[in-house]
Amino acid sequence: MSHHPCGRLASRLRQRKFHLLRRFQIPRDALPGSLSLTHLRCGKPTCHCAQDRGHPVWSLTFMLLGEKQVQHIPKEWVEQVRRRVSAGREFQDAVREVLAANAQLLVLARQQEKKRKNKKKKK
Ligand SMILES: [Zn+2]
Predict the structure, then answer these.
(1) If you measure from the C-alpha of residue 39 to the centroid of ligand 1, how many angstroms do you get, rounded to a whole number?
(2) How far, in Å, is the centroid of ligand 1 from the Cα of 38?
(3) Which residues surround ligand 1, an ion (CB under 5 A)?
(4) Are 78 and 58 spatial neighbours (Cβ–Cβ below 8 Å)?
(5) Which residues touch 71 (CB under 8 Å, ≥6 apart)?
């Protein structure tokens, strides 16, 4: 059982929380990390890339089992991987926000409990 603080801030936090909880199930294909584009020259002196900034190379960087991994992402995968990464980020943001709201609600509950106890003492 959790303690339910009252007041306007507490109810706003609870509303926001319920909104997030309704909206977010774990997105089944969500990916961690970030997608980035770099340019590499292949080294062939006759290739057009010798003159410009190089061939576009997409990669996804993420942590796996405590280690940083960089995976090359083929051009045809980029759009799908981008969507999956953004689903993962939205989900993580939502989780963080729910945890922060719960922490704030706990702080409020403690404050209100202290006030109640102080009032009793004064009587
Ligand atoms: Zn080249």
Answers:
(1) 10
(2) 13
(3) 42, 47, 49
(4) yes
(5) 59, 60, 62
- Judge contact between 63 and 69, C-beta under 8 A: yes
Tell me, in angstroms, the distance from the centre of ligand 1 to residue 51's CA. 9
Token pair of 74 as six digits: 């083929």
**b (16+ CB within 10 A) / e for 1-19:** eeeebeeeebeebeeebee
- The Å distance, Cα 70 to ligand 1 centre, comes to 21
DSSP code per residue over 18-46: HHHHHH-PPPTT---SEEEEEEE----TT
pTM of the predicted model as reported, rounded to 2 decimal places:
0.72
Q: What is the pLDDT of residues 51-81, one digit of tens each?
A: 888 999 999 999 988 999 999 999 999 999 9
Both tokens of 28, joined, read 């089944």
Cα–ligand 1 centroid distance for 47 (angstroms): 5
Tokens of 115: 């006030």
